[in-house]
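Quick check before the chapter quiz. The format below is the same one you will see on the exam, so make sure you can read both the input and the output lines.
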Amino acid sequence: MAPTLSLAPAAPADIPALERLVNHAYRGDASRQGWTTEADLLDGTRVDAAELHRMLAAPGATLLVGRNEQGEPVACAYLHVQPPQLYLGMLSVQPTLQAQGVGRLLLQAAEQHARQYGCHRIKITVISDRTELLAWYERHGYQRTGATEAFPTDPRFGVPRKPLALLVLTKSLG
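Here is the expected output.
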């Protein structure tokens, strides 16, 4: 059963906590407490404060934050309306709360957000080597499109230990 979370758009004051949350969810030793770690694939950070500010300011974008009962950010997802689809990225859950249904709650919130803005499909990208994460998204209705995107070369998003590609998946909201 998923913990009780309140979901709301992030504000600029949330950026330091979100930077810690996202980086702990994906990189470094803290990320190894959960199953979404990229620590074996990439060195460095997943996101920095400047990028979070840019994401927050992008037209049509929302950084959705899940807060625990104490009001602390423990999950987030980047939602960017790009009609006719919504781009979903940076889905992050505090490592100690992973595998408890929090990610599923964020996916449901993303679908609701997409429908609210008239989007009929959600697009995501996942590192091709992340077989367990690809399987998780596929269990939630996402399908591989066959398309790939280059992994960002900017070291602000991490330094790959080997060449990486992003697989494009979509889910139709019918």
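If your answer matched, good. The beta strands are 6-9, 42-43, 61-67, 73-82, 85-93, 121-127, 143-150, 159-160, 165-172.
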